[in-house]
Amino acid sequence: MDQKIFIFDTTLRDGEQVPGCKLNKKEKIELALELEALGVDILEAGFPISSPGDFEAVHEIATLLKKATVCGLSRAVQKDIEVAGEALKPAARKRIHTGIGTSDFHIKSKFNSNREEILERAVKAVKWARQFTDDVEFYAEDAGRTANDYLARVVEAVIKAGATTVNIPDTTGYCLPHQYGEKIAYLINNVPNVDKAVLSCHCHNDLGLATANSIAGVIAGARQIECTINGLGERAGNTSLEEVVMIIKQHGHLGFFTGINATQLNPISRKVADTMRMPVQPNKAIVGANAFSHSSGIHQDGFLKDTTTYEIIAPEEVGADSSKIVLTARSGRSALAYRFQKLGHSFNRNDIDALYEQFLAVADTKKEVYDEDLEQLAKAYQAASVTA
Ligand code: KIV
Ligand code: ZN
């Protein structure tokens, strides 16, 4: 039977850390309700100790959400955890996400500590968090660069202390997909109590590998992906929710499914982009303005004969506007005829041959040829035909 991959959305926490993306309480609440309607399983609403405003936003979201688990971030610090517990109090389902850096980079440079001390702090943090909820997620920050044998000891200890999900973040986006997959497989094979917890992928995109790494992680046995709408997040961003959801959907042979309503992916992408004032790059997979645009003659000809020649996803499946045939100097006759037809002009093959030369003359002077340019071409051509 297919296995569920839990979608942990962190748009309102890791995504909101992006410079310029800060949200006020009202905006956070609005997006939280939409993310719940989208079908995310866990929604990381914020970092309650970070500011009174974030505390209030997490508290309000915890009051309002009925289906999704509401999660609050904390460091492995008692006060952080208490504040997160307080902010999450009204939630129907609540999770505390606590953790600490486990790579030697973090242990030495950030904490001036040693592996044993960090392991103790990790265990203590989980035990504090368990006083507020049975649903505790531990993050081993910079797990991507943490030695696997030490990471396995930390994972075993935090599960023993009561963590029900263990997040294995590739915080710096360093890992290659096979390395990240091997890390998850190593934990599955070497942590004796690993079956008592869900392993989670939290991958950053510094090398453009966040999505590939998350997929490698679930193939290796992780069952949760942490991701954001439009791939927003620290530096180069996080794993993009829309990408992992559609990979899982397109590649059914992997044997996974998610609870996400894919038809809402484009509407929510636009909503997040507008609310956070962070435009989406046009060539972004699934939700970019060009994700369903065809502009070269070879592609247009194939697409117009059968859409599946150049589209693996139908736009309506992800709530996008219908596919576009864009006219540029690289477009061909089929596309030109198609666009004329859409405007109500049915020219025959000879007409199109003649019009195509005129079209190219216009197209070479512009980035894109629009309907109004086509109307002018049609008018001039029809007038010339009458006089001829
Ligand atoms: O990237 C990271 O390691 C994080 C943790 C706080 C989970 O965002
Ligand atoms: Zn992160």
Automatic annotation (TrEMBL):
InterPro entries from the entry? Answer: 2-IPM_HCS-like, AIPM/Hcit_synth_CS, Aldolase_TIM, LeuA/HCS_post-cat, PYR_CT
Q: In which pathway does it act?
A: Amino-acid biosynthesis; L-leucine biosynthesis; L-leucine from 3-methyl-2-oxobutanoate: step 1/4
Listed GO biological process terms: L-leucine biosynthetic process
UniProt keyword list: Amino-acid biosynthesis, Branched-chain amino acid biosynthesis, Leucine biosynthesis, Manganese, Transferase
Entry EC no(s): 2.3.3.13
List the CDD domains: DRE_TIM_IPMS
User: What GO MF annotations does this protein's record show?
Assistant: 2-isopropylmalate synthase activity
Transferase: is it a keyword of this entry?
A: yes
Domain Pyruvate carboxyltransferase spans what residues?
Answer: 5-266
Q: What class of enzyme is it?
A: transferase
Instruction: List each coiled-coil range.
Output: none
* Gene3D superfamilies linked: 1.10.238.260, Aldolase class I (3.20.20.70)
Q: Which NCBIfam families match?
A: PRK00915.1-3 (NF002086)
Q: Which family does it belong to?
A: Belongs to the alpha-IPM synthase/homocitrate synthase family. LeuA type 1 subfamily.
What is the designated name of this protein? Answer: 2-isopropylmalate synthase
- In which organism is this protein found? Flavihumibacter petaseus NBRC 106054
Its gene? leuA
